[in-house]
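Hello,

Following up on my earlier ticket. Below are the two sequence lines again, exactly as submitted.
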Amino acid sequence: MFNENVRGKVSIVGVGTAGCGEAPGHSELELLAQATRLALEDSGLALRDIDGVCTANLNNAMWPLNVVEYLGLRPTFVEGTNIGGSSFIAHQKPAMLALLSGQCNAVLVCYGSNQRTSKFGRRERAQARNLLDPNVFDDPFHPFDPPSSYALIAARHMHQYGTTRKHLAEVALAARRWAQLNPEAFQRGPLDMETILSARMISDPFTQYDCCQVTDGAGAYIMTRTDRARELRQTPVHILSNETAIWHKGVASMRDLTITPAAQSGPKAFQAAQLTPKDIDVVQIYDAFSINTILALEDLGFCKKGEGGPFVEDGAIGPGGKLPVNTNGGGLSCVHPNMYGAFATIEAVRQLRGQAGERQVQGARTALINGNGGVSASSQSTSILGVSDSLH
Amino acid sequence: MSWIEPVGTGEVYSTTTVRRKPEAGGNYDVSIIELDEGVRLMSQVLGVEPHEVKIGMRVQLRVIPDESGQHKVVFYPEGTHHVQ
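Thanks for your patience. The regenerated structure is below:
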């Protein structure tokens, strides 16, 4: 009942990205602020209109304070939950509730990272995290995480369902083909099946092509109630539903390595949106690793469990395929500054507005975004977005 | 919920070989072991080359000292004899 009442009542009205790829010399806050400025310009709102903030970050325990101070805001709503890279999708439902209750009127969801070019990069943070957040059961065995945990998931999926390295490579190839159509993507060079299959292993069965990039980048988007959205600069993109599920932290605690919490968040999101997978025109899946796309397509119901490998064969999720997935190039080929959830959302909005240039999916009216968080698909957040005529 | 004392046998539920340069110590195994009592844990299979560890392989628990003077639970293929 509640979900029916909020369906489409909140919209995304502005999006911005900055520093995608390499942004040397910029702090995380500077990149976040640049993306925020672009999202505001896109929407027609001013910074003083923002009275809600959703944000998270891997280095700072009280990151919303950093952001609020730097942007000079006085918000009446703050959401700083950090469940990994899915956070910036999982922030949507709390923001919807705050907007619809009148607690605030315009929510900024924002993220920035300089992990590629910063002196304190990925390696240094991994060392610090081992001290701050040790896992006494896993650490003695030195998994090279996150790749090793997702590699264990992929190996089990291959064992149970006959999924092959070629299936995984199809995911990476599709992402690259989309990226080649996206001027903002960081990896746009040629790539073929043979290159992937003959590449050096990192953590079997993964090569570098199965793993998301390490880039800088910032993403920001702005949400308002839909009645206000209709008076702003852009075609509003309505949030039809957002559902989040969290089942575990480490890979050894998964009850079934081949089933992620998207098997819970996905069906709930479809039910709340009153749509089915057949109704979705474009899909943005957080592809931290090639196996993530296959797992999500299964768990969300685009195919049956175990059939994700065959589903992606023959370029089926690339440009011109039967289901457009990760049309910006995804975390594998477009941008991956640690946490990708905001970027999946922003690409869905650009597609639904018809502003995606060469990679535009013609006539896209509905989009699904699925966030992935933690080092073993620990949290999943699914949203379904649509343009106005999808509300009926 | 209750305590159970495992007998120490199980099988490899999933496995990956972490690739590392020889000068840094070489490749090593990281596996998830499912004990016969039904619980799983992350561990390492020793006594065979990392790439020879396969899902479904029967393994036997052993406690060995780790680098920091603590102890850790590792596994060897069932029925194999090995030299410490």
